Amino acid sequence: FPRLAEKMPNSTHFYLEYLLVQWGVQALNLTRYLNLMKYTALRQLYDPKEAKELSEPEDQDFYGMGSMSARSTLNLTIALAFCTLSPLICIIGLVNFFLARVVHSYLFV
Prior knowledge:
This protein has 6 helices and no strands. By secondary structure, it is mostly helical. Helix 2 (33-43) packs antiparallel against helix 3 (48-55) and helix 5 (65-82) packs antiparallel against helix 6. The longest helix is centred in the N-terminal third of the chain and has 30 residues, at 2-31. It is elongated.
């Protein structure tokens, strides 16, 4: 494992920044920007009610429960793997999961 011991500390900064970017991803999920873009594009062709119906179903392959669970598991694995090398990642991970809880509990209702 000497190769892993040499490379892993250098990659902690990348994963710190990765988890910080996830905060912005949570904010974008809250806005449902893809549905908004589809609605504004379809509103040019259809009346507003029909455009809303056509733009409403989200892509369940990316925004579904299984995909969100997989992405949350990845974020947790990153935080757990690097917490001994950079303890700051624990705090960033906790904030990330707090934001995810707030956003997804709002979106699932």
